[in-house]
Every structure is written in structure tokens, then in C-alpha cells.
Amino acid sequence: MGNGFRPNNTIIEFDGYRFDSGLERSVYCYLRLLFKKEDISVHHSVVVKPPTNHFPERRWKCDFYIPKLNIYIEAKGIRHRTWKQQLEHLDRLNPLALDRLIVVSEVANELVFRGNRTVTIGGLTNAIAALNVQQISLNTIPLIEKGIPETFRGVSIE
Predict the structure, then answer these.
(1) Are 143 and 29 in contact (CB under 8 A)?
(2) DSSP string covering 112-157, please?
């Protein structure tokens, strides 16, 4: 499929984006509580293997990238073999990017790769803070206390 979405998944259109799963949409909604829309790169393309004389470059479309914090966030229900291969390529090219990757799943603490375990949506704020990110200010977090913006009312984030 040329659109990048898996054929068996139900595509969810929301806030101008097409999400591959309900989990991915829920992670986006949660991130919107923490960040402005323009501060979230959705389906961010990352080179995982540069081109060679024999093969073209390979890219991974990360679900979310927060450029100001240099954080990659992937919503994963099922970790397919091709996704793991992309991460292995990225590890060779840019291992520091993997250190900045948060994998959100419906089950917490599952091993993704050495040094990385899944978090749930509810643990996402702590995972971001655990990366020792100085840019998250106390002004960002209270958005949750102010309530969900009108756009997200009726959308479950858990």
C-alpha cells in the first residue's frame, strides 16, 4: 500500500491527520494536551539507512517527533519485524535517536530493545521528563488541569 498504512488497520481521520490506529490517535490527543499542534511533527520521516551505490535510502515514519525536545514517540500495538529492522538500521546510523525514542503501548514495561521499555499513555509525561528534558516548563503541564480543548472532547486518551 502506497499510503504507508497497514491494510488490516482501521484508518482514523482526526484533526487533519490520518492515524493508523486508535492508540496512535489517543497518543496524539495526549500530546496535544502537552504541546501546541505546530510543535508536534506527525508521521515524521527519518533516514535510517543512507543510500548506497546498490540500494536507495531507507526511511522510517515515526508517529510523532517533538523537534523542540528532540524526542521521537511511537505508538505501537504490534511490533512488526520490519519496524524492528528499521530501528536496527537507525541504531547503526544514529544510536542517539534511539536513546530519544519513547514507545507507547497499551501494556507498560514490555521490552522493545535493550534499554527501552514501553510506557502507557498515562506514563508518557514521566517518560518525557525521564529523558532529562529541560525544555518542558511548569507552564506546559497545567494544560491538563485546564481541561481538554474543544477539538478533543469525547475522545478517549486511555
Answers:
(1) no
(2) EETTEE-B-GGGHHHHHHHTT-S---TTTGGGTTT---GGGTT---
Confidence (pTM): 0.73
Tell me the pairing of strands 17-19 and 12-14: antiparallel
Cα→Cα distances 65→57, 101, 108, Å: 20, 9, 21
Q: Among residues 51, 91, 46, which one has the least CA distance to residue 64?
A: 46
Provide the 3-class DSSP secondary structure of residue 58. Answer: strand
Greatest Cα pair distance, the chain, in angstroms, is 54
Rounded Cα gap, residues 91 and 142, in angstroms: 35
H helical segments located in the chain? 22-34, 81-93, 95-99, 124-130
Going from the N-terminus, what domains does the chain have, and what CATH number goes with each? 12-148 (3.40.1350)
| Contact partners, residue 100, CB within 8 Å, separation at least 6 | 70, 71, 72, 131
Q: What is the pLDDT of residues 96-147, one digit of tens each?
A: 777 788 888 887 777 667 777 778 888 888 888 887 544 444 344 444 444 4
CA distance 123 to 107: 11
